[in-house]
Structures are given as C-alpha cells and as structure tokens.
Amino acid sequence: MDRREFIKNGCAACLSATVISTLMPGCAATRYVSGTLTQDGITVKKDDFKIKQKGGTARSSFIIVRNEALQYPICVYRFSEEEYSALWMRCTHQGTELQASGDLLQCSAHGSEFNNKGQVKSGPADINLRTFPVIINQDEIFIDLRKKS
Ligand code: FES
Question: 3-state DSSP helix/strand/coil percent for the chain, to nearest 5?
Fold first, then answer.
C-alpha cells in the first residue's frame, strides 16, 4: 500500500467512525452502573447520568443498573431532576432480557417494545413492565425493590 492509498483508506475509516457515532448517539451514551444495594433496594447517584462532552456536561436520558444480586437489570429513565422511572428489564411476554434503545426498551426474542414508563408499545407482550417506586434525594435515587409501583 503506497502513501496515497494509505491516506485515502485512513480518511474513509475516520469518516465512517464519525458517521456511525453521529447516527448512534444512544449507544455512546449508554451507561452501566452497579448501584449500592441495601436490604430494601438499590441506590444510584444522580451524577451517574452525567456525560462529559466537548464544551460541558450533558445528561443521559437513562442508565442501566446491572448488579449481580439482581436477576435482570433495571433501566432508570430521567425525565427531569426530580422525575425518574425504574423499569425491570424483563420482557413480560416470555422473560427475555430487554435492550434499551433511546426511549424504548426492545425485546430481541419476538419484537415487543415498551416505552420509558414501561407501557407496551408493540406486542406480542400485552402486559406493561414491572416498575419500582423511586425516592429522589438531593444527590441520589433510591429504587425500592420491595414493591411494584
Ligand atoms: S419474550 Fe419478549 S417478545 Fe417474546
């Protein structure tokens, strides 16, 4: 490969990486945390939603709490500084673990989709996701695992 070909191929690869990262901002923003497990629930920090970007800090619309004590992860959506939802990422159709894609949770098994409040948007699932009550403190979000909300 000569120099000209190397530069041409390098530029094409660079351009592809830029286009992919522009088209898939949700992938870059997906954040996994383990949280702090207590007897009654799990606590995450509001700062877990922070994303450092050029020129400042942005907030992710969701984070995924993945803790070995949990059978499935919990997706926590942020609507504002004081409003969050916590969704059990278990498909209500046949129990497949869901994938977060922006404001939707999608099931790879048969295609069910749920919105960021856990409501069914498309089947075959016909039952909303299990959700947990959240208690918002100054810096933290407590997810109460004792009961469904
Ligand atoms: S298990 Fe999720 S749609 Fe069937």
Answer: 20, 40, 40
How remote is the CA of residue 108 from the centroid of ligand 1, in Å?
Answer: 7
Indicate the SS3 state at residue 129: coil
Instruction: Give me the mean pLDDT over the 31-40 stretch.
Output: 91
Contact between residue 139 and residue 82 where contact means Cβ atoms under 8 Å apart: no
CA of 137 to the centre of ligand 1 (A): 35
Mutate to test the pocket of ligand 1, among 72, 89, 112 (most ligand atoms within 8 A of CB): 112
Which ligand 1 atom sits nearest the alpha carbon of residue 107? 2
In this structure, what DSSP letter does residue 92 have? T
Dump pLDDT digits (tens) for 5-21: 644 554 444 344 333 33
pLDDT(144) > 90: yes
pLDDT in tens, 94-135: 999 999 999 999 999 999 999 999 999 999 999 999 999 999
Structure letter (DSSP) for residue 72: S
**In this structure, are residues 144 and 42 in contact, taking their beta carbons and an 8 Å threshold?**
no
Rounded distance between C-alpha atoms, residue 117 and residue 33, angstroms: 20
